[in-house]
Amino acid sequence: MSAGEGLRTERLARAGALLRRRGDPAGAEPLLRAALAATEQAYPRDPARLAHALNELGLVCKDLARYDEARALYERALRLLLEAPGSQPGDIATLQHNLGGIEHARGDSVAGEPHARSGLALRLASGEGNGPALAADMIALGAILDARGEYAEAERLYLDGLAILEGDPDAHAPEIAVALNDLGASYAQRGMLSDAVAMLDRAAALKRRVLGPRHHELAVTLNNLAVVHERRGDHKHAAALYAEAVSILERSLGSAHPRTVSCRANEARCSAAADASTAG
Question: On the chain, which terminus has fewer CB atoms closer than 10 Å, C or N?
Fold first, then answer.
């Protein structure tokens, strides 16, 4: 491998990862596919580097709702690390975390929980301390437990994760926003609507500031916030939030993405209820 090939591989990977963080998974995908192909050619005997490239592409596939492909990429990366002597427990924990996230995204929290618990246990044993990766593992497991109705343990994990992240709020603002969103959604599921609004308002404001007004992660929180306002009977406010979320999702993920389709259906239902209320 020449120095030029290695530099090109790194540039592709960095550019793709940057686009994904900025909320452009469609733009990131071809760069990360090229980075993976270049990594396979340039570093065929470096399992850690190859696993990282597979994981990065898997993250994009998850964003694009290509869950089977994402899971296959994560599983391939995990096999590489498990078979390679000297693999870092933290890297394996990350892949277990991501495999749990894929199952959660597919609506199978039962399948996701063992991965999430394994990832958290590995992280705790890895010696990484109370860092953002540990907090992310806690919050991810909390989301899975929420889906199973195990609210007490989920809330404890959210709050413990938040406590870690808020030790350095400027450095970990995006992760804090995720935790606030998930905690707010949990409160909404439990019927704690005022608490839900408080958490989701904070999450939305933080995402606007650190991710920008066109990021699909902001749309997730706006949709959740709209659900709460709709349950409180404020259909006009909820419809406006749904409409903003749909606009973001159509630009960032496309009109056919499952999140866009779901949010658009929410907007239609809520707008109809708002119109009926006005007419009455």
Answer: C
Phi, psi at 117, each rounded to 5°: -70, -40
Residue 127 and residue 173: Cα distance in Å, rounded?
24
Would you give per-residue pLDDT tens digits along the chain (280 residues)? 555 677 889 999 999 999 999 999 999 999 999 999 999 998 889 999 999 999 999 999 999 999 999 999 999 999 999 999 999 999 999 999 999 999 999 999 999 999 999 999 999 998 776 799 999 999 999 999 999 999 999 999 999 999 999 999 999 999 999 999 999 999 999 999 999 999 999 999 999 999 999 999 999 999 999 999 999 999 999 999 999 999 999 999 999 999 999 999 999 999 998 888 776 5
Torsion, Cα of 59, 12, 214, 174 (10° steps):
60
Helix 216-231 and helix 193-211: axis angle, to 10°? Answer: 160
Query: Tokens standing for 244?
Result: 């903003």
What's the rounded Cα separation, in Å, for the pair 7 and 10? 5
CA 265 centroid distance within chain: 22
What whole-number distance in Å separates Cα of residue 5 and Cα of residue 105?
36
User: pTM here?
Assistant: 0.93
Distance separating alpha carbons of residues 255 and 65, to the nearest angstrom: 13
